[in-house]
Amino acid sequence: MTSDHEPAAAGADPGDGAASAVAGQLVAGLLQGPARLGRVRLVTVDGPAGSGKTTTAARLVAAVVGAGRSAAVVHMDDLYAGWDGFEPTLWPRVRTQVLEPLRRGSAGRFERYDWVLGRFDGWVDVPPVDVLVLEGCGSCPRAVDGLTSLRLWVEAAPSVRLARGLARDGAAAEPHWRTWMRDEQAHFAAQGTRGRCDVVLDAFGMMAG
């Protein structure tokens, strides 16, 4: 795992235009619905590592901007304390540094984890935009359902996800990736994440079952 986020999905991509059209449809519905995080519409893009969440988040932001509204994305990769991503301080930090300020109408500000240095280093401002996309594994816990306007789940086969992760992070990261994949599976099972999400997308941003 690195803060460079996920590469584009590998395999038989049906075309970015089709996926962008899906994102546009999702954003059109989102903007017609209510904001639940103050004036901000919070979108969570959850799912296992390497499934294509970052690309999906980018398409959503582009669709929001294309609709004449403001948007920002926060990556969970920047919030994890390294490979121990699901440790107990994660969500208290997300709430305190990002969600609560936005709910009150103020800018959020979170401390960003530097994967090279192996520590938190530097702060990132999060303005009170029309749409905030929170992207990454574990971005959609039950605890924030009441604040979220749209919950997305993005998935891909485990073998594809592992291959993509090692292509990005190097073969030496395989033990970390395998541990992460076990941890995320336990987290998703405990939270019932996929079943709670409003929309399921495949690795190419297309509607899935």
Entry keywords:
two-stranded antiparallel sheet; 209 residues; alpha/beta; 5-stranded parallel beta sheet
Overview of the molecule:
- 38% of the residues lie in helices and 20% in strands.
- It is built from six helices and seven strands; from the N terminus they run αβαβαββββαααβ.
- Strands 2-5-1-6-7 form a five-stranded parallel sheet. Strands 3-4 form a two-stranded antiparallel ribbon.
- The two termini are 27 Å apart.
- Residues 6-14 have low confidence and may be disordered.
Quick recap:
The protein is of the alpha/beta class and 209 residues long. The protein is built from 6 helices and 7 strands.
- Count of individual beta strands: 7
Residue share in β-strands: 15-25%
Overall 3D form: globular
Question: What class would the helix/strand composition place it in?
Answer: alpha/beta
The low-pLDDT segments are 6-14
User: What is the string of helix and strand elements?
Assistant: HEHEHEEEEHHHE
The end-to-end distance, rounded to whole angstroms, is 27 Å
How many H/I helical runs? 6
Average residue-wise pLDDT = 92
Rg (CA only):
16 Å
Helix fraction, binned, reads: 25-40%
Strand order of the largest sheet: 2-5-1-6-7
- Sheet with the most strands? 5 strands, parallel
Ordered list of secondary-structure elements with their pairings:
Elements: H1 16-32, E1 41-46, H2 53-66, E2 71-75, H3 90-103, E3 108-114, E4 119-126, E5 131-135, E6 148-154, H4 158-169, H5 174-191, H6 193-196, E7 199-201
Parallel strand pairs: 1-5, 1-6, 2-5, 6-7
Antiparallel strand pairs: 3-4
